Protein backbone atom coordinates (compact mmCIF):
# COMPACT_ATOMS: atom_id res chain seq x y z
CA UNK A 1 0.00 0.00 0.00
CA UNK A 2 1.42 3.34 -1.02
CA UNK A 3 0.40 6.12 1.35
CA UNK A 4 1.13 5.55 5.00
CA UNK A 5 -0.38 8.38 6.98
CA UNK A 6 -0.15 7.24 10.59
CA UNK A 7 -3.15 7.72 12.81
CA UNK A 8 -4.21 6.51 16.24
CA UNK A 9 -6.75 3.67 16.23
CA UNK A 10 -10.19 5.13 16.92
CA UNK A 11 -12.99 3.41 18.80
CA UNK A 12 -16.68 3.86 18.12
CA UNK A 13 -19.25 2.89 20.74
CA UNK A 14 -23.01 3.04 20.77
CA UNK A 15 -24.80 6.13 22.08
CA UNK A 16 -27.96 5.25 23.98
CA UNK A 17 -29.91 7.57 26.27
CA UNK A 18 -27.10 10.11 26.42
CA UNK A 19 -24.37 7.57 27.33
CA UNK A 20 -21.61 5.89 25.35
CA UNK A 21 -21.93 2.13 25.73
CA UNK A 22 -19.93 -0.75 24.35
CA UNK A 23 -21.29 -3.87 22.70
CA UNK A 24 -22.02 -6.29 25.61
CA UNK A 25 -20.15 -9.24 24.13
CA UNK A 26 -17.34 -6.91 23.08
CA UNK A 27 -18.12 -7.51 19.42
CA UNK A 28 -16.42 -4.83 17.39
CA UNK A 29 -15.99 -4.59 13.63
CA UNK A 30 -13.15 -2.88 11.79
CA UNK A 31 -13.17 0.30 9.76
CA UNK A 32 -10.44 0.14 7.08
CA UNK A 33 -8.95 2.94 5.00
CA UNK A 34 -9.65 2.13 1.33
CA UNK A 35 -6.66 4.22 0.24
CA UNK A 36 -4.10 2.33 2.30
CA UNK A 37 -5.73 -0.77 3.78
CA UNK A 38 -4.81 0.50 7.25
CA UNK A 39 -7.07 0.09 10.24
CA UNK A 40 -8.80 3.38 11.04
CA UNK A 41 -10.58 2.05 14.09
CA UNK A 42 -13.07 -0.38 15.56
CA UNK A 43 -16.79 0.07 16.11
CA UNK A 44 -19.37 -1.61 18.33
CA UNK A 45 -21.91 -3.88 16.69
CA UNK A 46 -25.25 -3.36 18.44
CA UNK A 47 -27.27 -6.37 19.52
CA UNK A 48 -31.02 -6.70 19.06
CA UNK A 49 -31.47 -6.01 22.80
CA UNK A 50 -29.54 -2.75 22.45
CA UNK A 51 -31.66 -1.71 19.50
CA UNK A 52 -34.79 -2.31 21.56
CA UNK A 53 -33.26 -0.42 24.48
CA UNK A 54 -32.41 2.59 22.30
CA UNK A 55 -35.94 2.69 20.88
CA UNK A 56 -37.42 2.48 24.39
CA UNK A 57 -35.30 5.42 25.59
CA UNK A 58 -36.07 7.43 22.45
CA UNK A 59 -39.76 6.77 23.01
CA UNK A 60 -39.51 7.88 26.63
CA UNK A 61 -37.62 11.05 25.67
CA UNK A 62 -40.26 11.85 23.04
CA UNK A 63 -42.92 12.85 25.59
CA UNK A 64 -40.69 15.72 26.83
CA UNK A 65 -39.06 16.64 23.56
CA UNK A 66 -42.30 17.06 21.61
CA UNK A 67 -43.44 19.58 24.23
CA UNK A 68 -40.17 21.52 24.17
CA UNK A 69 -40.90 24.83 22.40
CA UNK A 70 -39.46 25.02 18.91
CA UNK A 71 -37.11 27.96 19.67
CA UNK A 72 -35.54 25.80 22.38
CA UNK A 73 -35.15 22.85 20.01
CA UNK A 74 -33.67 25.24 17.47
CA UNK A 75 -31.14 26.48 20.03
CA UNK A 76 -29.67 22.97 20.30
CA UNK A 77 -29.25 22.85 16.51
CA UNK A 78 -27.63 26.29 16.45
CA UNK A 79 -25.23 25.20 19.18
CA UNK A 80 -24.43 22.00 17.24
CA UNK A 81 -23.70 24.08 14.11
CA UNK A 82 -21.13 26.10 16.09
CA UNK A 83 -19.51 22.95 17.48
CA UNK A 84 -19.32 21.30 14.05
CA UNK A 85 -17.35 24.35 12.91
CA UNK A 86 -14.77 23.60 15.63
CA UNK A 87 -14.47 19.89 14.75
CA UNK A 88 -14.80 20.35 10.98
CA UNK A 89 -11.23 19.40 10.04
CA UNK A 90 -11.11 16.39 12.37
CA UNK A 91 -14.44 15.01 11.16
CA UNK A 92 -13.53 15.59 7.51
CA UNK A 93 -10.23 13.72 7.90
CA UNK A 94 -11.92 10.71 9.49
CA UNK A 95 -14.47 10.65 6.66
CA UNK A 96 -11.71 10.66 4.08
CA UNK A 97 -9.89 7.89 5.94
CA UNK A 98 -13.02 5.76 6.24
CA UNK A 99 -14.48 6.00 2.74
CA UNK A 100 -11.87 7.65 0.56
CA UNK A 101 -13.39 10.87 -0.77
CA UNK A 102 -10.84 13.64 -1.14
CA UNK A 103 -10.45 16.03 1.80
CA UNK A 104 -11.94 19.15 0.13
CA UNK A 105 -15.07 17.12 -0.55
CA UNK A 106 -15.20 15.92 3.06
CA UNK A 107 -14.77 19.48 4.30
CA UNK A 108 -17.56 20.56 1.96
CA UNK A 109 -19.75 17.83 3.39
CA UNK A 110 -19.24 19.06 6.96
CA UNK A 111 -20.19 22.49 5.58
CA UNK A 112 -23.48 20.94 4.42
CA UNK A 113 -24.07 19.55 7.93
CA UNK A 114 -23.57 23.02 9.42
CA UNK A 115 -25.84 24.63 6.83
CA UNK A 116 -28.51 21.98 7.42
CA UNK A 117 -28.44 22.56 11.18
CA UNK A 118 -28.79 26.32 10.65
CA UNK A 119 -31.44 25.92 7.98
CA UNK A 120 -33.59 23.55 10.06
CA UNK A 121 -33.19 25.75 13.16
CA UNK A 122 -34.77 28.57 11.13
CA UNK A 123 -37.27 26.39 9.32
CA UNK A 124 -38.70 25.29 12.68
CA UNK A 125 -40.21 28.77 13.05
CA UNK A 126 -42.15 28.09 9.88
CA UNK A 127 -43.79 24.83 10.93
CA UNK A 128 -47.04 26.57 10.11
CA UNK A 129 -50.49 25.10 10.31
CA UNK A 130 -53.54 26.08 8.28
CA UNK A 131 -56.89 27.63 9.08
CA UNK A 132 -59.79 26.52 6.93
CA UNK A 133 -63.10 28.42 6.49
CA UNK A 134 -65.64 26.58 8.67
CA UNK A 135 -68.80 25.19 7.15
CA UNK A 136 -70.96 26.11 10.17
CA UNK A 137 -71.53 29.26 12.26
CA UNK A 138 -69.57 29.84 15.47
CA UNK A 139 -66.90 27.32 14.60
CA UNK A 140 -63.26 27.55 13.65
CA UNK A 141 -61.24 24.85 11.97
CA UNK A 142 -57.49 24.59 12.01
CA UNK A 143 -54.84 22.07 11.09
CA UNK A 144 -51.55 21.63 12.93
CA UNK A 145 -48.45 19.57 12.17
CA UNK A 146 -47.58 17.07 14.89
CA UNK A 147 -44.43 15.01 15.30
CA UNK A 148 -44.77 11.24 15.04
CA UNK A 149 -42.45 9.80 17.70
CA UNK A 150 -39.29 7.78 17.20
CA UNK A 151 -37.71 8.22 13.77
CA UNK A 152 -35.17 5.62 12.63
CA UNK A 153 -32.64 7.10 10.21
CA UNK A 154 -30.72 4.56 8.10
CA UNK A 155 -28.00 6.02 5.90
CA UNK A 156 -25.37 4.90 3.33
CA UNK A 157 -21.61 5.40 3.36
CA UNK A 158 -21.17 7.75 0.40
CA UNK A 159 -22.22 10.86 2.33
CA UNK A 160 -21.33 9.74 5.85
CA UNK A 161 -22.71 12.76 7.72
CA UNK A 162 -24.65 15.03 5.32
CA UNK A 163 -27.42 12.49 4.79
CA UNK A 164 -27.62 11.89 8.53
CA UNK A 165 -27.95 15.64 9.06
CA UNK A 166 -30.82 15.95 6.54
CA UNK A 167 -32.80 13.32 8.38
CA UNK A 168 -31.80 13.92 12.00
CA UNK A 169 -32.16 17.70 12.05
CA UNK A 170 -35.54 17.75 10.30
CA UNK A 171 -36.79 14.99 12.62
CA UNK A 172 -35.58 16.79 15.77
CA UNK A 173 -36.79 20.28 14.97
CA UNK A 174 -40.24 18.84 14.26
CA UNK A 175 -40.30 17.28 17.76
CA UNK A 176 -39.40 13.66 17.03
CA UNK A 177 -36.62 11.69 18.68
CA UNK A 178 -34.06 9.76 16.66
CA UNK A 179 -32.28 6.44 16.43
CA UNK A 180 -29.54 6.61 13.77
CA UNK A 181 -28.06 3.58 12.01
CA UNK A 182 -25.21 4.74 9.74
CA UNK A 183 -23.43 2.47 7.26
CA UNK A 184 -20.71 0.37 8.88
CA UNK A 185 -18.02 1.70 6.51
CA UNK A 186 -18.38 5.16 8.10
CA UNK A 187 -19.33 4.34 11.69
CA UNK A 188 -16.47 6.42 13.14
CA UNK A 189 -17.55 9.53 11.23
CA UNK A 190 -21.03 8.99 12.66
CA UNK A 191 -19.54 8.70 16.12
CA UNK A 192 -17.89 12.13 15.85
CA UNK A 193 -21.14 13.58 14.52
CA UNK A 194 -22.99 12.28 17.59
CA UNK A 195 -20.25 13.46 19.94
CA UNK A 196 -21.00 16.95 18.68
CA UNK A 197 -24.71 16.51 19.36
CA UNK A 198 -23.86 15.19 22.81
CA UNK A 199 -21.77 18.29 23.49
CA UNK A 200 -24.58 20.49 22.18
CA UNK A 201 -26.55 19.16 25.16
CA UNK A 202 -29.55 17.42 23.62
CA UNK A 203 -31.48 15.74 26.47
CA UNK A 204 -30.77 12.00 26.99
CA UNK A 205 -32.65 9.72 24.61
CA UNK A 206 -33.41 12.42 22.04
CA UNK A 207 -30.58 11.21 19.77
CA UNK A 208 -29.24 7.64 19.78
CA UNK A 209 -26.57 6.00 17.64
CA UNK A 210 -26.56 2.32 16.76
CA UNK A 211 -23.75 0.99 14.62
CA UNK A 212 -23.59 -2.57 13.35
CA UNK A 213 -25.05 -4.92 10.82
CA UNK A 214 -27.81 -3.64 8.53
CA UNK A 215 -29.61 -6.91 9.02
CA UNK A 216 -29.66 -6.87 12.86
CA UNK A 217 -30.07 -3.16 13.50
CA UNK A 218 -31.99 -2.23 10.35
CA UNK A 219 -34.43 -5.08 10.53
CA UNK A 220 -35.21 -4.64 14.23
CA UNK A 221 -35.86 -0.92 13.70
CA UNK A 222 -38.02 -1.52 10.67
CA UNK A 223 -40.21 -4.06 12.38
CA UNK A 224 -40.43 -2.23 15.74
CA UNK A 225 -43.91 -1.04 16.72
CA UNK A 226 -42.55 2.04 18.52
CA UNK A 227 -40.57 3.26 15.51
CA UNK A 228 -43.00 5.50 13.68
CA UNK A 229 -40.91 6.58 10.70
CA UNK A 230 -38.12 4.93 8.73
CA UNK A 231 -36.11 7.52 6.86
CA UNK A 232 -33.81 5.55 4.57
CA UNK A 233 -31.21 6.50 1.99
CA UNK A 234 -29.43 3.71 0.18
CA UNK A 235 -29.78 1.22 -2.62
CA UNK A 236 -33.07 0.46 -4.32
CA UNK A 237 -32.62 -3.22 -3.43
CA UNK A 238 -32.37 -2.60 0.33
CA UNK A 239 -35.10 0.07 0.14
CA UNK A 240 -37.48 -2.49 -1.33
CA UNK A 241 -36.71 -4.93 1.49
CA UNK A 242 -37.29 -2.27 4.14
CA UNK A 243 -40.59 -1.23 2.55
CA UNK A 244 -41.75 -4.82 2.71
CA UNK A 245 -40.62 -5.31 6.32
CA UNK A 246 -42.09 -2.03 7.57
CA UNK A 247 -45.47 -2.73 5.99
CA UNK A 248 -46.28 -5.07 8.87
CA UNK A 249 -46.45 -2.13 11.30
CA UNK A 250 -47.84 0.32 8.72
CA UNK A 251 -45.16 2.84 9.65
CA UNK A 252 -44.26 5.69 7.38
CA UNK A 253 -41.22 5.00 5.25
CA UNK A 254 -39.29 7.54 3.23
CA UNK A 255 -36.94 6.11 0.61
CA UNK A 256 -34.12 7.95 -1.20
CA UNK A 257 -32.61 5.36 -3.54
CA UNK A 258 -30.33 4.77 -6.50
CA UNK A 259 -29.95 6.57 -9.82
CA UNK A 260 -28.81 6.16 -13.42
CA UNK A 261 -28.45 9.80 -14.23
CA UNK A 262 -27.80 11.18 -17.69
CA UNK A 263 -26.35 14.31 -19.22
CA UNK A 264 -28.01 15.08 -22.56
CA UNK A 265 -25.83 17.13 -24.90
CA UNK A 266 -27.54 18.67 -27.93
CA UNK A 267 -25.60 19.75 -30.99
CA UNK A 268 -25.99 23.48 -30.21
CA UNK A 269 -24.47 23.10 -26.69
CA UNK A 270 -21.38 24.87 -25.39
CA UNK A 271 -19.19 21.76 -25.47
CA UNK A 272 -16.52 23.09 -23.11
CA UNK A 273 -19.08 23.78 -20.42
CA UNK A 274 -20.77 20.44 -21.10
CA UNK A 275 -17.46 18.54 -20.82
CA UNK A 276 -16.65 20.28 -17.56
CA UNK A 277 -20.10 19.51 -16.09
CA UNK A 278 -19.93 15.89 -17.26
CA UNK A 279 -16.51 15.19 -15.76
CA UNK A 280 -17.39 16.84 -12.45
CA UNK A 281 -20.65 14.97 -12.07
CA UNK A 282 -19.31 11.65 -13.30
CA UNK A 283 -16.13 11.43 -11.24
CA UNK A 284 -16.59 13.52 -8.09
CA UNK A 285 -16.66 11.14 -5.09
CA UNK A 286 -15.18 8.60 -7.54
CA UNK A 287 -18.61 8.26 -9.15
CA UNK A 288 -20.09 7.04 -5.86
CA UNK A 289 -22.98 9.48 -5.71
CA UNK A 290 -26.66 8.79 -6.17
CA UNK A 291 -26.71 11.78 -8.53
CA UNK A 292 -23.48 10.86 -10.38
CA UNK A 293 -23.70 11.16 -14.16
CA UNK A 294 -23.25 7.66 -15.52
CA UNK A 295 -24.63 8.21 -19.04
CA UNK A 296 -23.95 10.89 -21.63
CA UNK A 297 -26.59 11.01 -24.35
CA UNK A 298 -25.16 13.07 -27.17
CA UNK A 299 -26.35 14.16 -30.62
CA UNK A 300 -24.27 12.42 -33.24
CA UNK A 301 -22.73 15.46 -35.00
CA UNK A 302 -20.95 16.63 -31.82
CA UNK A 303 -20.18 13.25 -30.29
CA UNK A 304 -16.52 12.95 -31.35
CA UNK A 305 -15.60 16.47 -30.29
CA UNK A 306 -17.42 16.15 -26.96
CA UNK A 307 -15.80 12.79 -26.17
CA UNK A 308 -12.38 14.24 -26.96
CA UNK A 309 -12.92 17.11 -24.54
CA UNK A 310 -14.30 14.81 -21.81
CA UNK A 311 -11.41 12.38 -22.23
CA UNK A 312 -8.82 15.20 -22.07
CA UNK A 313 -10.29 16.56 -18.85
CA UNK A 314 -10.57 13.07 -17.37
CA UNK A 315 -6.94 12.24 -18.12
CA UNK A 316 -5.83 15.36 -16.28
CA UNK A 317 -7.49 14.27 -13.02
CA UNK A 318 -5.15 13.54 -10.13
CA UNK A 319 -5.84 10.19 -8.49
CA UNK A 320 -4.59 9.35 -5.02
CA UNK A 321 -5.06 9.35 -1.27
CA UNK A 322 -7.70 11.96 -0.47
CA UNK A 323 -5.66 13.28 2.45
CA UNK A 324 -2.90 14.38 0.06
CA UNK A 325 -3.22 17.88 -1.31
CA UNK A 326 -4.34 18.33 -4.90
CA UNK A 327 -5.92 14.90 -5.35
CA UNK A 328 -9.26 14.93 -7.15
CA UNK A 329 -10.20 11.27 -7.21
CA UNK A 330 -9.85 8.90 -4.25
CA UNK A 331 -10.27 5.13 -4.12
CA UNK A 332 -13.51 3.18 -4.23
CA UNK A 333 -14.96 2.49 -0.79
CA UNK A 334 -13.97 -1.17 -0.55
CA UNK A 335 -12.87 -4.26 -2.43
CA UNK A 336 -16.45 -5.33 -3.24
CA UNK A 337 -17.11 -2.01 -4.94
CA UNK A 338 -13.86 -2.37 -6.90
CA UNK A 339 -14.91 -5.81 -8.12
CA UNK A 340 -18.35 -4.48 -9.03
CA UNK A 341 -16.76 -1.81 -11.21
CA UNK A 342 -14.41 -4.33 -12.85
CA UNK A 343 -17.35 -6.62 -13.58
CA UNK A 344 -19.38 -3.84 -15.22
CA UNK A 345 -16.50 -2.65 -17.40
CA UNK A 346 -15.90 -6.21 -18.60
CA UNK A 347 -19.59 -6.65 -19.33
CA UNK A 348 -19.65 -3.36 -21.25
CA UNK A 349 -16.85 -4.44 -23.58
CA UNK A 350 -18.49 -7.84 -24.08
CA UNK A 351 -21.64 -6.02 -25.15
CA UNK A 352 -19.76 -3.96 -27.74
CA UNK A 353 -18.58 -0.94 -25.75
CA UNK A 354 -15.24 0.67 -26.63
CA UNK A 355 -13.05 2.08 -23.88
CA UNK A 356 -12.09 5.68 -24.69
CA UNK A 357 -10.02 6.08 -21.53
CA UNK A 358 -9.46 4.18 -18.27
CA UNK A 359 -10.70 0.63 -17.81
CA UNK A 360 -8.02 -0.53 -15.34
CA UNK A 361 -7.21 -0.62 -11.65
CA UNK A 362 -4.47 1.79 -10.59
CA UNK A 363 -2.30 -0.98 -9.18
CA UNK A 364 0.75 1.12 -8.36
CA UNK A 365 -1.22 3.08 -5.74
CA UNK A 366 -2.30 -0.02 -3.78
CA UNK A 367 -5.73 0.65 -2.24
CA UNK A 368 -8.97 0.29 -4.17
CA UNK A 369 -8.26 2.72 -6.98
CA UNK A 370 -9.84 2.48 -10.41
CA UNK A 371 -9.15 4.76 -13.36
CA UNK A 372 -11.95 7.12 -14.34
CA UNK A 373 -13.38 5.28 -17.32
CA UNK A 374 -15.30 6.39 -20.39
CA UNK A 375 -16.95 3.82 -22.63
CA UNK A 376 -18.25 4.68 -26.12
CA UNK A 377 -20.56 2.74 -28.47
CA UNK A 378 -22.93 1.98 -25.64
CA UNK A 379 -26.51 1.09 -26.63
CA UNK A 380 -29.43 2.33 -24.49
CA UNK A 381 -30.30 -1.14 -23.22
CA UNK A 382 -26.77 -2.35 -22.50
CA UNK A 383 -26.15 -3.39 -18.92
CA UNK A 384 -23.97 -0.37 -18.10
CA UNK A 385 -26.65 1.94 -19.50
CA UNK A 386 -29.34 0.43 -17.29
CA UNK A 387 -27.85 -0.62 -13.94
CA UNK A 388 -26.41 1.62 -11.24
CA UNK A 389 -22.64 0.99 -11.06
CA UNK A 390 -21.66 3.42 -8.29
CA UNK A 391 -18.14 3.93 -9.57
CA UNK A 392 -16.14 6.09 -11.99
CA UNK A 393 -17.63 4.71 -15.20
CA UNK A 394 -19.36 6.81 -17.84
CA UNK A 395 -21.27 5.41 -20.82
CA UNK A 396 -21.52 7.41 -24.05
CA UNK A 397 -24.71 6.87 -26.06
CA UNK A 398 -25.24 8.52 -29.46
CA UNK A 399 -28.65 9.67 -30.69
CA UNK A 400 -30.12 11.53 -33.67
CA UNK A 401 -32.49 13.99 -32.02
CA UNK A 402 -33.67 15.61 -28.81
CA UNK A 403 -36.69 13.28 -28.82
CA UNK A 404 -34.50 10.18 -29.03
CA UNK A 405 -32.25 11.56 -26.26
CA UNK A 406 -35.21 12.08 -23.92
CA UNK A 407 -36.52 8.61 -24.64
CA UNK A 408 -33.15 7.12 -23.70
CA UNK A 409 -32.94 9.38 -20.65
CA UNK A 410 -36.30 8.15 -19.38
CA UNK A 411 -35.68 4.55 -20.40
CA UNK A 412 -34.36 3.16 -17.10
CA UNK A 413 -36.06 2.13 -13.86
CA UNK A 414 -34.52 5.19 -12.13
CA UNK A 415 -35.53 8.85 -12.07
CA UNK A 416 -33.24 10.87 -9.84
CA UNK A 417 -31.38 13.49 -11.89
CA UNK A 418 -31.31 14.66 -15.51
CA UNK A 419 -29.07 17.29 -17.06
CA UNK A 420 -29.28 18.90 -20.49
CA UNK A 421 -26.78 21.16 -22.23
CA UNK A 422 -28.33 23.31 -24.96
CA UNK A 423 -28.59 26.95 -25.99
CA UNK A 424 -32.18 26.36 -27.09
CA UNK A 425 -34.89 27.74 -24.84
CA UNK A 426 -37.32 25.42 -26.55
CA UNK A 427 -35.42 22.20 -25.78
CA UNK A 428 -34.36 23.36 -22.31
CA UNK A 429 -37.99 23.91 -21.36
CA UNK A 430 -39.15 20.70 -22.96
CA UNK A 431 -36.48 18.78 -21.04
CA UNK A 432 -37.58 20.40 -17.76
CA UNK A 433 -41.09 19.13 -18.47
CA UNK A 434 -40.39 15.78 -20.11
CA UNK A 435 -37.57 14.37 -17.95
CA UNK A 436 -39.04 11.86 -15.50
CA UNK A 437 -36.73 12.69 -12.60
CA UNK A 438 -36.92 14.57 -9.33
CA UNK A 439 -34.03 16.86 -10.28
CA UNK A 440 -33.46 18.57 -13.62
CA UNK A 441 -30.42 20.69 -14.41
CA UNK A 442 -30.11 22.93 -17.47
CA UNK A 443 -26.54 23.72 -18.49
CA UNK A 444 -25.16 22.16 -15.31
CA UNK A 445 -24.05 18.62 -14.39
CA UNK A 446 -26.35 16.14 -12.63
CA UNK A 447 -25.03 16.56 -9.12
CA UNK A 448 -25.44 19.89 -7.37
CA UNK A 449 -28.08 20.20 -4.63
CA UNK A 450 -28.79 23.47 -2.82
CA UNK A 451 -30.04 24.04 0.71
CA UNK A 452 -33.77 24.65 0.93
CA UNK A 453 -34.53 22.96 -2.40
CA UNK A 454 -36.51 19.71 -2.33
CA UNK A 455 -34.26 16.70 -2.97
CA UNK A 456 -35.44 13.28 -4.13
CA UNK A 457 -36.19 11.04 -7.06
CA UNK A 458 -39.04 9.61 -9.11
CA UNK A 459 -39.72 6.01 -10.20
CA UNK A 460 -37.42 3.49 -8.45
CA UNK A 461 -35.18 6.31 -7.15
CA UNK A 462 -37.55 6.91 -4.27
CA UNK A 463 -41.10 6.72 -3.05
CA UNK A 464 -42.13 10.31 -3.56
CA UNK A 465 -40.77 11.96 -0.42
CA UNK A 466 -38.45 14.97 -0.53
CA UNK A 467 -35.69 15.94 1.90
CA UNK A 468 -33.62 19.06 2.62
CA UNK A 469 -36.37 21.66 2.15
CA UNK A 470 -39.45 22.34 4.31
CA UNK A 471 -41.07 19.48 2.38
CA UNK A 472 -39.07 17.22 4.72
CA UNK A 473 -41.82 17.96 7.25
CA UNK A 474 -44.18 15.87 5.16
CA UNK A 475 -41.96 12.97 6.29
CA UNK A 476 -41.38 14.11 9.87
CA UNK A 477 -44.86 15.31 10.88
CA UNK A 478 -48.49 14.42 10.40
CA UNK A 479 -51.54 16.63 10.22
CA UNK A 480 -54.10 16.96 12.98
CA UNK A 481 -57.40 18.76 12.22
CA UNK A 482 -59.07 20.59 15.12
CA UNK A 483 -62.69 21.75 15.10
CA UNK A 484 -63.76 24.30 17.75
CA UNK A 485 -67.37 25.34 18.26
CA UNK A 486 -67.44 28.58 20.19
N1 LIG B 1 -31.23 9.09 -3.46
C1 LIG B 1 -30.35 9.53 -2.58
O1 LIG B 1 -30.50 10.58 -1.97
C2 LIG B 1 -29.09 8.73 -2.32
C3 LIG B 1 -27.99 9.36 -1.73
C4 LIG B 1 -26.83 8.62 -1.48
C5 LIG B 1 -26.78 7.27 -1.81
N2 LIG B 1 -27.85 6.68 -2.38
C6 LIG B 1 -27.77 5.26 -2.78
O2 LIG B 1 -27.12 4.48 -1.78
C7 LIG B 1 -26.48 3.36 -2.38
C8 LIG B 1 -25.06 3.21 -1.88
O3 LIG B 1 -25.00 3.16 -0.51
P1 LIG B 1 -24.90 1.77 0.33
O4 LIG B 1 -24.08 0.78 -0.40
O5 LIG B 1 -24.52 2.14 1.72
O6 LIG B 1 -26.44 1.30 0.30
P2 LIG B 1 -27.11 0.07 1.06
O7 LIG B 1 -28.53 0.06 0.60
O8 LIG B 1 -26.33 -1.17 0.91
O9 LIG B 1 -27.04 0.46 2.62
C9 LIG B 1 -27.65 1.62 3.14
C10 LIG B 1 -27.89 1.43 4.63
O10 LIG B 1 -28.80 0.37 4.82
C11 LIG B 1 -28.26 -0.58 5.74
N3 LIG B 1 -28.75 -1.93 5.37
C12 LIG B 1 -28.19 -2.78 4.48
N4 LIG B 1 -28.92 -3.92 4.42
C13 LIG B 1 -29.96 -3.76 5.27
C14 LIG B 1 -31.07 -4.58 5.63
N5 LIG B 1 -31.26 -5.79 5.12
N6 LIG B 1 -31.94 -4.08 6.52
C15 LIG B 1 -31.79 -2.86 7.03
N7 LIG B 1 -30.76 -2.03 6.74
C16 LIG B 1 -29.85 -2.48 5.85
C17 LIG B 1 -26.76 -0.43 5.58
O11 LIG B 1 -26.08 -0.94 6.70
C18 LIG B 1 -26.63 1.06 5.43
O12 LIG B 1 -26.67 1.70 6.67
C19 LIG B 1 -26.54 3.62 -3.89
O13 LIG B 1 -27.56 2.85 -4.47
C20 LIG B 1 -26.89 5.11 -3.97
O14 LIG B 1 -27.53 5.50 -5.16
C21 LIG B 1 -29.01 7.37 -2.65
From TrEMBL:
Judging by the UniProt lineage, the source's domain of life is Bacteria
Keyword Cell cycle among record annotations: no
Listed A to Z, the keywords are: Oxidoreductase
Q: List, alphabetically, the SUPFAM superfamilies matched.
A: ALDH-like (SSF53720)
Pfam families per UniProt: Aldedh (PF00171)
Q: Using the record's annotation, list all stretches that form the Aldehyde dehydrogenase domain.
A: 20-482
| Cleavable signal peptide | none
Residues of the active site: 256
Family of this protein? Belongs to the aldehyde dehydrogenase family.
Q: What is this protein called?
A: Aldehyde dehydrogenase family protein
Amino acid sequence: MSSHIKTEILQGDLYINGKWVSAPDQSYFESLNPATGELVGICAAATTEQVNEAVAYANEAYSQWKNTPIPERAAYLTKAAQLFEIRKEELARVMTMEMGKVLPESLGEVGVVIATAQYMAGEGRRLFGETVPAGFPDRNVRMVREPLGVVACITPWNFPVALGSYKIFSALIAGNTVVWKPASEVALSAKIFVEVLDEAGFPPGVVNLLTGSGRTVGQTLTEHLDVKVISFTGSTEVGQKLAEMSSKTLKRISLELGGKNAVIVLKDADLDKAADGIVKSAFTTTGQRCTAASRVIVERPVKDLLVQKVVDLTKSMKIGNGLEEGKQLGPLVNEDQLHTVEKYVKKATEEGGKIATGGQRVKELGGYYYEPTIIENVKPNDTIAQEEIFGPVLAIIEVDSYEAAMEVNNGTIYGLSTSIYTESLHYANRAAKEAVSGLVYINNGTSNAEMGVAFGGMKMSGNGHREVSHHAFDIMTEWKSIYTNY
